[in-house]
Design a protein that fits this description.
This protein is α+β, with helices and mostly antiparallel strands. About 25% of the residues lie in helices and about 30% in strands.
Length: about 260
C-alpha cells in the first residue's frame, strides 16, 4: 500500500495539514512543530484498525489531550492510498468529543473504492456494501469508541477489499523510544520463538534476529554486509548462544577476539 495523501485536522499540534509522502521521507523541523505527531496519526490509525481505539485514547488521558489547542471538538483523518493490485481508495475517520468531557465517539467513518462507497457510518448506524457494490447489511449497535474497520474479520468480512485495508493498517509499526539502557528488556535473553516482525518498542529484537538470521541465508548475508560496513572487517557474524532452557542471547563474534 502506498499512501498518496494524508489529511489531518484537529489532532494535537496539527491544526490542518495535507501530507503527500514519497517512498522515503525525512521530516525536519524545530521542536513542537508536529514531526512526532505525524507518526502518532499513523499509530492511531493502526491501533483503530486492530480494535484498540478506545483503550488507546483512554491511555492518552482521554480525547481532550488529543484535540488541537483545546479549541476544537473533533479530530478528522483521511488517508488516500493506492493498494498494490487495485485502484485508488480512501478511508475517512472523525472522532468527536462528547460534550465537555474527555470521552469520545466515532462520529463518521467511510471507505471508498473508485469513489464508490463500500462502508459508511454515522454515529452508531452503519451500512456496508460488497465488492460488487451490493448492499449487504446495516448495523445500529456499533460500539461508539471502536471503528468498523476493526470489525472486518467479524460480521463485516463480506467485503474482501475492506478486509485487506484493515489488515494493511493493522500491520503498520511505529518505532520510537527504544530503551537500550543497561537493564532494558532488549538486552536480556529472549525466548526462542518464531518471530519475523519487530515490535514497536523493539524489545523482541533478539527473537526476530534469531529467527531470520538462522533461517534466511539472504537476510544473514545482508546483515553481515551492513555490520561490516558499520564496524569494519573485524566483524565476523552474529551468534545466539543458549542462556537457559528455551532462552537465547544475542552476541557478536569478532575475528580477532576469542
Amino acid at each position: 500500500m502506498k499512501i498518496q495523501k494524508l489529511t489531518v485536522r484537529g489532532f494535537r499540534s496539527l491544526s490542518h495539514i495535507e501530507w503527500a509522502p514519497g517512498d522515503l521521507n525525512l521530516v525536519i523541523g524545530p521542536n513542537a512543530s508536529g514531526k512526532t505527531n505525524l507518526l502518532r496519526v499513523l499509530e492511531l490509525l493502526s491501533v483503530a484498525a486492530r480494535g484498540g481505539l478506545g483503550k488507546y485514547v483512554q491511555g492518552q488521558g482521554g480525547i481532550e489531550p488529543l484535540l488541537w489547542d483545546g479549541r476544537v471538538d473533533s479530530i478528522t483523518l483521511q488517508v488516500n492510498f493506492l493498494p498494490q493490485i487495485s485502484s485508488p481508495q480512501s478511508y475517512f475517520l472523525r472522532l468527536g468529543r462528547i460534550g465537555k468531557t474527555s470521552s469520545f465517539r466515532v462520529d463518521k467513518e467511510s471507505y471508498l473504492q473508485d469513489e464508490n462507497t463500500s462502508l459508511i457510518r454515522d454515529g452508531r448506524q452503519a451500512a456496508i456494501f460488497d465488492a460488487n457494490r451490493n448492499y449487504v447489511e446495516s448495523k445500529e449497535d456499533v460500539a461508539e469508541d471502536e471503528t468498523l474497520l476493526s470489525m472486518t474479520s467479524g460480521p463485516f468480512a463480506v467485503n474482501r477489499n475492506l478486509q485487506h485495508v484493515q489488515q494493511e493498517f493493522a500491520s503498520w509499526s511505529i518505532y520510537k523510544d527504544f530503551d537500550s539502557t543497561e537493564n532494558a528488556a532488549i538486552r536480556k535473553p529472549a525466548v526462542t520463538r518464531m518471530e519475523k516482525r519487530i515490535a514497536p518498542d523493539g524489545q523482541n529484537l533478539t527473537s526476530v534476529l534469531h529467527t531470520l538470521y538462522s533461517g534466511d541465508r539472504d537476510f544473514k548475508r545482508e546483515i553481515n554486509l551492513a555490520m561490516r560496513t558499520a564496524f569494519g572487517e573485524e566483524f565476523e557474524e552474529l551468534i545466539f548462544p543458549p542462556a537457559a532452557d528455551q532462552l537465547v542471547q544475542l552476541r557478536i563474534r569478532w575475528k580477532s577476539l576469542k
